[in-house]
Amino acid sequence: MSSFPRLVAIAGLVLPLIGQGDLPAPASLQSLVDAAKPGDTLVLEPGTYTGPLVISKPLTLDGRDQVVIDGGGKGTVVLLQTDGATLKNLRLTNSGDSHNDIDAGVQVRGNFNVIRDNVIDHCLYGIDLQQSSNNIVRRNRISSKPVDLGIRGDAIRFWYSYNNQATDNVIRDSRDTVVWYSKDNVIARNDARGGRYSLHFMYSHVNLVEDNFYEDNSVGIFVMYSDGVILRNNTIVNASGPTGVGIGFKDSSDVEITGNKVLYSATGIYLDLSPYQPGTTNRFTNNLIAFNAVGVRWLPGRDGNIFVGNRFEGNITPTVLEGGAGKGATFNSWEGNYWDEYEGFDRDGDGIGDTPLEQYAYADRLWMDLPEAQFFKGSPMLEVIDFLERLAPLSEPKLLARDERPIRTADIPIDILATLARHAPKSQGIVMDEDEDYADEAYEDEGEAPAATSVAPGRAFAPTTVAAGSSIPAPASAGYASDSSAPVGGGYDALKALRQSLGRE
User: Of 41, 266, 345, 381, whose CB neighbour count within 10 A is largest?
Assistant: First the structure.
């Protein structure tokens, strides 16, 4: 922080950077910290120091990758009870094991702190932020205690915390990364494996999640009771187990899901009563949903999910409506997606199928209505029944999904904005300038998308002109704060710019 002087404290336990190495050593690391002045930089000599440690003033603690702070199996290793402190290049290990006390490698109880380039291992929780804002958590390697998955602690935990950045962290064998009652946070470029929930939102609105890699976790990203979340360019691979979900939503609205890859999971996308708020949408654009047991699974009764420009490849079952097919199946909008199972023709060679793609529930409705019957899915008998049903249905098959303009090849460009505008609910406030065929004409034009859309305040789409084939505009992620200082609007500015580009500011 520029408001504090940055000095080097020399006190025996510290590297003799300026020739003052003969001072008597303090009794403990805590004594050294207590003796330091606000703004000091403490560069510790290599070795292992005893914790727990409480830092209650703005200073920098630098271990230069040669210092271990051992919590001794009691409480939290380092408590940051201040604003403007930095922890870097340390190994923090051996916290207590109390979930009630959230024993962690680092507990943050302040603002404008930086925790970077540390190794946090054998700690129940990794980094816990409570009512703490404008902090940077960057390039840390985090793992929990070697216990069963369900009783590990979370790698990174936000609780009533705002405008923080968690970027470039490597997480192994922890439980979850959780965001509770927190907003305006940026979670980007993290790598998490061997956990339960890679990332879990609860009652947390308006957060940006981008460029993360999540593999071999029970669940990729799950958004619960949270609106305005942006999920962009994340990769989720092998959400393991029979109920593993790549990206899931529970009672969540106004979510942007674009450019993600969801691969090799039990369920790629799961929608439970989402969107929840009337008149809102969840928008899925340019995602790759491939090689999952189920591509998209949802519950009936909610409209407003819009799927445009996505690729569905190699999924055993592309779409499933839980509880059987019915009216709810037609509430979602599908257009301009690539389906590897599409068998229609493209006589005019424009890359768009001449007939709609329609997916129906035949004999497989049995296991949609009765989850217990999934055991028999793929069995020879059920496959025979399904074949006969498609040949000569004994009853009217139930429509699951209908894509009016299926893409015939996977790389055909599509005007995302024009298509989204056409499918947005009337309650979104989007009004076409001419007649209702205006967007269709623009869609077929290889020039520009229509610019004359009027948007209600706070709704999803701004009046923007975008070339056909372009995706939703978004700023570069260069707004993240640097390593050396806490963010001064960095993450928030990036998020705000993105929201403005989407017409939500």
Answer: 266
Sheet (strand 197-202) strand order:
53-55, 78-80, 104-108, 125-130, 156-159, 177-180, 197-202, 219-224, 245-250, 267-272, 294-298, 317-321
Contact 71, 123 (CB under 8 A): yes
Token pair of 326 as six digits = 């019915």
Domain 1-177, architecture per CATH: 3 Solenoid (2.160)
Angle 380-381-386 (CA atoms, 0-180°, nearest 5)? Answer: 95
Q: How far apart are CA 80 and CA 73, in angstroms?
A: 18
Output the CA–CA distances (angstroms, integers) from residue 80 to 10, 36, 108, 155, 185, in the order listed. Answer: 21, 15, 5, 17, 19
pLDDT tens digits, 243-299: 789 999 999 999 999 999 999 999 999 999 888 888 888 999 999 999 998 999 887
Can you tell me which residue has the tokens 């840390």? Answer: 140
pLDDT at residue 5 in the model: 33
Contact in structure between 302 and 331 (CB atoms under 8 Å): yes
With CA atoms as reference, report the closest residue to 281 among 72, 456, 81.
Answer: 456
CA atoms of 13 and 505, how far apart (whole Å): 51
Q: Which residues, 6+ apart, have CB-to-CB distance to 437 below 8 Å?
A: none
φ, ψ (nearest 5 deg) of residue 344: -75, 170
The answer to whether the CB of 141 falls within 8 A of the CB of 132 is no
Q: Would you put residue 160 in left (φ > 0), alpha (ψ -120 to 50) or beta?
A: left
